[in-house]
Design brief:
By secondary structure, this protein is α/β, with parallel strands linked by helices. The protein is 34% helix and 21% strand. Strands 1, 4, 5, 6, 7, 8, 9, 10, 11, 12 and 13 form an 11-stranded mixed sheet that branches. It has a two-stranded antiparallel sheet with strand order 2-3. The longest helix is centred in the C-terminal third of the chain and has 20 residues, at 346-365. The two termini are 28 Å apart. The relative contact order is 0.19.
């Protein structure tokens, strides 16, 4: 999933940039060859990813101890920026595995041929609806839903029911209340545009956005500004005196507000309009030309393993893709289950993404 999306606490980890997370230390090791001489064999495996990647240190150390590999994490901005760098360095990648390409950008990665096919161990345990590449150039790792979030206190004070669907957002009672991200510069902004395409079709989404614009939707560059500055329901938005009680964020945002609340509230101060959502699926792949192919394969296996899958919800605020992974109580208590998110087929996104974004920009921003 990209990027700005894993919300709140992850920003602290993102500030570290390039990190080496190691239980083994020592960098490269040497193995004895049959002839008694030593030949270098890398024991470091490098994960190239977006700034929102995070994992519990103990979980990563367990993998390192069991596999013998040291994991180096190379954070490279948001998902789009990270992917662009890998396309530019195709064949001579900066690492061994790339994590963070989602279904909105998947076709771009595959068309540029940056991945080597690898059918991960444990793939049979992944829910089949998330396996979008039958050649196994990428492996699904997590899912998340881009949804409109609302400030519970605002709507309670005004005695107005919060919106629940995309149709609701164009009604007069919600005029000048919504802030969203730019679809040309932001992953959640693009996801919200795709939600409208999924709901209203290629012939209807422009009319919907015309109505949304007439109803006072505000567009900002990215999630951080929308959620932590303009949205009145978040901790950051309250400090910044944000005055928009509706924001495009994630279905997992309410648990984050609880987890990082000071003091921690009994209930989330924000809610989710479950009829406004677009589902993202995020993937990892073995980079073509990787220096440590075997280490890369082991790392991909780890990412769909039970330990990592159950660690993700409170580290990156996303949902696991494996059938046997359990969710933490805080995540299930304060999050929501989106039963019917909007979806657009990856091949349809690939064919139309650029023209949709261009048309959206001309209609809404200019």
């Amino acid at each position: 999933m990209s990027t700005t999306k894993k919300i709140a606490g992850v920003a602290l980890a993102a500030a570290l940039g390039v990190t080496t997370l190691s239980a083994c230390g020592g960098g490269d090791a040497k193995d004895k060859s049959a002839g008694g001489t030593e030949s270098p064999k890398s024991k470091t495996v490098t994960l190239v990813t977006h700034d929102s990647f995070n994992v519990t240190e103990a979980v990563l150390k367990e993998f390192e101890q069991q596999s013998g590999y040291t994991v180096k994490v190379l954070k490279s901005g948001d998902a789009g920026a990270a992917l662009n760098q890998e396309i530019l360095t195709k064949g001579s990648p900066r690492g061994d595995v790339f994590f963070g390409v989602d279904n909105t950008l998947l076709s771009r990665a595959l068309d540029n041929g940056i991945f080597t096919p690898y059918e991960a161990k444990g793939l049979a345990g992944v829910k089949p609806e998330y396996v979008l590449d039958k050649q196994h150039r990428v492996t699904p790792i997590d899912t998340g839903d881009i949804c409109v979030n609302y400030d519970k206190a605002y709507f309670a004070d005004k005695k107005i029911a919060p919106p629940q669907t995309l149709d609701d957002l164009v009604k007069p009672e919600y005029k000048n209340l919504l802030v969203t991200e730019n679809a040309a510069t932001s992953s959640p902004g693009l996801g919200f545009l795709l939600a409208s395409v999924g709901k209203y079709g290629e012939d209807g989404w422009k009319d919907y956005w015309s109505k949304l614009k007439a109803n006072g939707v505000e567009v900002v560059d990215g999630w951080e500004q929308a959620y932590n500055e303009r949205f009145s329901g978040s901790a950051g938005g309250k400090k910044a005196k944000g005055d928009r009680p509706l924001v495009v964020s994630y279905a997992s945002s309410p648990p984050v507000e609880v987890l990082y609340g000071e003091p921690q509230p009994a209930e989330a101060p924000t809610g989710v309009a479950t009829g406004t959502c677009f589902r993202q699926v995020e993937f990892a792949g073995l980079l073509k030309g990787a220096k440590n192919t075997e280490g890369g394969k082991a790392l991909v296996d780890f990412l769909i393993g039970k330990k990592f899958q159950e660690d993700m919800p409170l580290q990156m605020f996303v949902n696991p893709v494996t059938k046997d992974a359990s969710l933490p109580e805080l995540f299930t208590k304060h999050g929501v289950v989106v039963e019917k998110p909007e979806n657009v087929a990856p091949e349809t996104i690939a064919k139309n993404r650029e023209q949709w974004v261009s048309a959206w920009t001309a209609l809404v921003v200019k």
